[in-house]
Amino acid sequence: MQLPNKSNQSVLDAESLDTLISNNAEAGWPDLDERDRAFAVEYITNGFSHNDAAEAVGLSRKSGLKKLREPLIGAFIRHLQASTANAKIITQQFVEQKYLEVLPKLMGEEDVPLFDHKEGISISAKKFHSAETVSVLRDLGKAAGYVAPEGPKGGNVHVTIDLGGFTGQSEPVGVTIEHEDE
Asked: What is the span of the domain harbouring residue 21?
């Protein structure tokens, strides 16, 4: 439904105005010229200043409020706001990529900056971060749909390490792991 001129938009009855807006939304807003579209985009991106938006598209600052009162421009602005509100900046792929970037650092495969606050120095070295690595792997597993097998819940684990080989004794180092179920 093409209007003879924009000033008639405010005179249309509610049903005709709703039809006009619906038809425009479905057809890609053909009744808005490039300046009206640019005004709407500027209005949203500049912090909702109608004066600044009007000036940015080459109109007088005073004409911004008049533009906002045009029902079709107002509907287009609401359409843009809804579209941008539904747009996701941080996607699952983005999060997974960041996990994969940080994982080698957490696993001690890449140098990370280490700070000695007491001495006031910084060095770059490899450091294994076990808890953080497990957390990242668990999150990546969940994202990939992997479910870890059920392990023992609770209980105590006793680890004994025989350091005899390090103290000059000729016997090899021994490791004993005992698990007690609760």
From this structure: 6-86
